[in-house]
Amino acid sequence: MTYLKFIIITLITFLSFGLSLQARSTNKLAKIISNQGNISITEANKSKNSGTNNSQFSAEGALLSTRGAKSGLQV
Asked: Does 71 reside within a domain?
């Protein structure tokens, strides 16, 4: 009877230890995935801002070339 209790207690101990290790590794994996998501959002925002700046520069360049053409016609 004592052997059976010992075996049951040992199994419960190993199971709880294994589950706590699995929970820790799952938590670490969740943090890694969360960090990757934050990096992706940051990169997307940088890309969006870069695209906005590029289109703004293109619009300014078109405006300047239009002004240049107008001033060229006036001369």
From this structure: yes
